[in-house]
Amino acid sequence: MMKTINMKKAIHISIVIIASMAIMSCSNTNSPNYQYMPNMYEPVGYETYGEYDIFENEMEAKLPAEGSIPRGWMPYEYENSTAGLELARTELKMTLPVTEENLAKGAQLYEIYCAVCHGTKGDGQGILMQREKFLGIPSYADPGRNITEGSIYHVQMYGLNAMGSYASQTNELERWQITQHVLNLMAALKGEAGLIVETMGEDAVNNLPQLIESAEETNGEEPVDN
Ligand code: HEC
């Protein structure tokens, strides 16, 4: 009698063990498990960069419509070519007013993006030049280069040979702020006077006639704003 009960028990236990092993063996830890009530996990709306049948190519993220302009971005009309550079060199003018703030911001950005190659003074002796990681970095005072506000802006937009573009790291305002700093570095290297800051300090009041004259020249030009 005792023996048969034990036998039955043993069979029951082994059935449970075999059944649970059979169920367990079906689970694959490499694939996602079952989801019960998936609405708890999955949003009803379309997720950014998600894949959905409803969209063309199943892509939620679309390319912007042709001709659209991102916020804070201004179209730049000069071509990425030697001709474009030469045109910008002579034609492209800075409309950003020269202020202490713009100069300070320009100096800061220059140290971040440009000084590694061009050097803090703009003499072409940055750390990467000294370590010979890059060669052929010119001094801004290089007499062979007629560097102008337009060319400084243009090379930041597109780069030039070994120099890369800074169009994705900086916005239009920042590129003109950097340009102001480069103009000042270039003037210092050449022993010329730098940009005149447009403030009305004591000195400025003494030079009032001159200031009015220069203000009239820049009149009607909108400051860059973004
Ligand atoms: C990776 C090193 C490197 C960095 C960083 C760099 N440049 Fe240059 N830059 C060069 C080289 C090399 C040239 C010379 C390109 C040539 O003429 O082939 C050059 C040329 C120039 C010129 C001369 C353009 C002309 O009219 O001939 C200007 C102006 C200039 N860079 C400004 C900048 C500014 C502003 C920055 C920062 C936003 C910057 N560079 C960052 C390497 C660099």
TrEMBL record:
GO terms for molecular function: electron transfer activity; heme binding; metal ion binding. Residues 101-216 form the Cytochrome c domain. InterPro entries: Cyt_c-like_dom, Cyt_c-like_dom_sf. Keywords: Heme, Iron, Metal-binding, Signal. Residues 1-29 form the signal peptide. This is Cytochrome C. The lineage of its organism: Bacteria, Pseudomonadati, Bacteroidota, Flavobacteriia, Flavobacteriales.
